[in-house]
Amino acid sequence: MLCETNKELDELVEEARKYTKDGQVADYIPALGKADPYDLSIAINYPDGRCVSAGDVQKRFTLQSTSKVISLALVLMDRGYDEVFEHVGMEPTGDPFNSIAKLEKMTPAKPLNPMINAGALVVTHMIKGNSVQERFDRLLSFIQQLANDASIGFSEEIAQSELETADLNRALCYFLKQHNRLNEEVEDLLNLYTKQCAIEMNCLHLARIGMVFAMDGMDPITSKQLMPKEVARICKTFMVTCGMYNASGEFAIKVGIPAKSGVAGGIMGAVPGKFGIGIFGPALDDKGNSIAGMKLLEMLSNDYQLSMF
Ligand SMILES: NC(=O)CC[C@H](N)C(=O)O
Prior knowledge:
Blueprint: E1 4-5, H1 7-17, E2 41-45, E3 51-54, E4 61-62, H2 67-87, H3 101-105, H4 117-125, H5 132-147, E5 153-154, H6 156-165, H7 167-178, H8 186-197, E6 199-201, H9 203-214, E7 218-219, E8 224-225, H10 229-242, H11 248-254, E9 259-261, E10 266-271, E11 275-280, H12 291-304
Helix pairs in contact: 1-12, 2-4, 2-10, 4-7, 5-8, 6-8, 7-8, 10-11
The structure holds glutamine.
InterPro entries: Beta-lactam/transpept-like, Glutaminase
EC number: 3.5.1.2
Keywords: Acetylation, Hydrolase
C-alpha cells in the first residue's frame, strides 16, 4: 500500500518517541524481548484510500491482544450474540489483562469480557472449524481480508515461545475447563490462541483494519461489507470500555477513541466514520500498553479533536 509521509505526523512521532525510554519491551514471552524499544511508527488509513504515515512503517510485529477484537468479530458472526454472551460478559474488570482474581468470584465462572485473557480464550474456543488448523485458517483468512493482504501470516517463533511459557494462560484454561466453559483439550486451545496472538503485520495493515471497524464493518475501498454493522459496533464498544486493559478509563478521558492494544506494542484505533489508526511502539508502560503509542494518540487527539465524547 502506498502511504504519504507528512511533516506534522513526523514531528509528533519524534516528540512521542522521547517517551520510549520510560517503557520496557514485554519479555514474559521471551521472543518479544528482542524488539527495539525505540521503535515507533504510525499509519492512518482513510476510507477514500488515502494513507499517511510516519516512522518505520514496514516493521512487522505480532498482534497479541489486538487480535482479541478480531476473533470476537469472527465468533459473533459464527455463533451470534446470544451464544457468545452466554459464555463471556460485557463488563470491564479494572484488573490486569491476565488476572484470574475476578473469575474465581463469579458464579457461574464466566470471564467478565472478551478483551482479558480469560475472555479471549473462551472466544477463541468458539471459533468454528473441525480442527485447530481449520479454525486458525478461518481467522487468518478473515484478518487477511480485513487488511486486504493475503500475504499476512504468523510468526512461528513467537507462537512457540509463548506456548512454551504460557503457564498463566494454561491455568486460566484449566480453571475455565473445570467450570465447563471449555470442552476441548487445553493444549489445542493454547496452540490456536498463541498462533492467533502471533499473527504478524505492520502498522499500515493495522490502520486498514481499524478503518474497517471505523466504517461499521465496510471496506469502502473494495466496497465489501466484511462484518455486519452490529458486530463492528459491539467490537468498538469493547475497545472503548476494555481495549486498553485497566487503563481504558484514563484512555477514554485522555484520547476518547475506540482502540485496542497488544503487548508486542501494537495499537489499533478506529475513529468512528473517519479513519483507522495503526501504531507500533514496543516499549510498554506498566499496564502493558505502548507507552509512546499512548502519548502519540493523546497528542493526535488533542491536536485534531478526535475524542468522540
Ligand atoms: N495483552 C496482551 O497482548 C496479551 C497477549 C498474550 N499473547 C498473552 O496472552 O499473554
